[in-house]
Prior knowledge:
The protein is an alpha/beta fold.
Amino acid sequence: MKERDFLISPSILSADFTQLGDQIQRAEQAGADWIHVDVMDGHFVPNISMGPFIVEACRRATDLPLDVHLMIEKPERYLENFISAGADYLTVHIETCPEMDRILSRIQELGCKAGITLNPATAVDKIEPFLKLADLVLVMSVQPGHSGQSFLSETLPKISWLRNKIDEIKPEVLLEVDGGINPETIRDAYDRGARVFVAASAIFNHPQGIQAGFDSLLERLRG
């Protein structure tokens, strides 16, 4: 049993899609807690990526929780598709959800954990009214849409603010950070209160392989 107070969720955005099942299984063997799936529509963010069929493929490859991040417009249209495909956590953006309370409740009614996230430029207090409804809060520490970007240090105060608000309002909510997470940045995010870490390039593109990439993050958190 893993004895640690944090979770690591490798993002398949940087995986080799010609060997996706094998890459996911290697990440699981390395010690991954979740698998992160970034869904992009080419409208809300400039890139286009995975749909429900990729979530289905991930579900066949692993029993780990699937952490699905919807960077899409009108996410309410697709909740059932992604949940039926195998999502365990489904996270939506405050910028695309004018009825956030209804969407979070609907995700939970469908048997999935509900997450809320915001872009780096969005004021963090916009999500405070919904903390009591959420299971997870995701802080984007890069502009969403592409892997391999540098961590935005100005998001660290957001993590601290959210840690305090979550502890005050609903301590069981998980606080996750995504973007530019590597051995140089993960400890700062942890020290500010994040406990779930999404890493893509640092794991899947490590020159010594997936296990070495994962271990480099663990070493920094345990050091």
